């Protein structure tokens, strides 16, 4: 969804303005250097004008195929990589260029759950030390109070509080992800970026972790940015959905609107690939197979970035980049074809 200013929002009513996070025209370009003297010859345009808005207590799902910029968006919001341009406003404060102590002051309120629970836990540290690390870094709690906080966090994520002296290799993948969630909760954050937190887990464990995230959100009034390529899980967990393609958000709308009647051709293609449990319905469905490869982020196509693979592209798509446009209801899309369809629908209604 979008606010009236053209920023996608994670709430049905943008007029409420209770946005915890607002991202405007966010760009992240990684320079390419070549030669002995390291001359800059170009840039990888990982993000190229991303607009997002997440309302308090809600979950915005960010979906798209691998390499579209989902994880870079999450890392840029947390300031784990430096933005090239745009603004990141968290709880009314511009944090885009904060450094040093000012950025350190914001860190406790914005945390991240990483994709690989094994890679993000230090194998040489005990579970108690891993969860206590953010508390030590921020100088929060000491002695018995800190130990009690660690036990509370382990209990909150469904692990035995007596496990504090164990090491990561002694736990399963699902348990390690719970430890990562406990670490993210240590400083009582308001906003958590979940970067494909279930992608590395067995299917039988994925539902448990998602249910845990839902339970924690209800109990602690958390706000999530849930990054995933699993559209079925996004439908279960998220209130609103933003779809990315090659560094840009192409459609953003309430979850039910996205799944019932997608407007952008790329969104339609993604949803057509999601299997339906009913065999009769599945056989009758039309699957959209996209041809060609995703263009290089070094030299993206002119006009609409999706036009080289779009089944309904026409001349205007190559000549003009589609702008964010508010469609019927509280949904936004960047697509010339969707704009034409809306115009035709309005004309037929008047006739």
What does this structure look like?
- With 351 residues, the chain is α/β, with parallel strands linked by helices.
- The chain has helices at residues 70-77, 100-106, 127-137, 143-156, 173-185, 203-220, 231-237, 255-260, 265-272, 279-284, 315-319, 336-350, and strands at residues 19-34, 39-55, 59-63, 85-90, 93-94, 110-113, 191-195, 223-227, 240-245, 248-254, 325-326, 332-333.
- Helix content is 34%, strand content 22%.
- The strands form two sheets. The chain has an eight-stranded mixed sheet, sandwiched between helices. Strands 2-1-4-5 form a four-stranded antiparallel sheet, covered by helices on one side.
- α3 packs parallel to α5.
- Mean pLDDT is 88; it is low at 4-16.
Q: Would you kindly provide a brief summary of this structure?
A:
By secondary structure, the protein is α/β, with parallel strands linked by helices.
Averaged pLDDT:
88
* Helix and strand element order: EEEHEEHEHHHEHEHEEHHHHEEH
Sheet with the most strands? 8 strands, mixed
What is the rounded Rg?
22 Å
From the spread of the alpha carbons, the general shape counts as globular
Our count of helices gives: 12
In order across it, which strands form the biggest sheet? 6-7-8-3-9-10-12-11
**Which structural class best describes the helix and strand composition?**
alpha/beta
Relative strand content: 15-25%
**Termini separation (Å)?**
30 Å
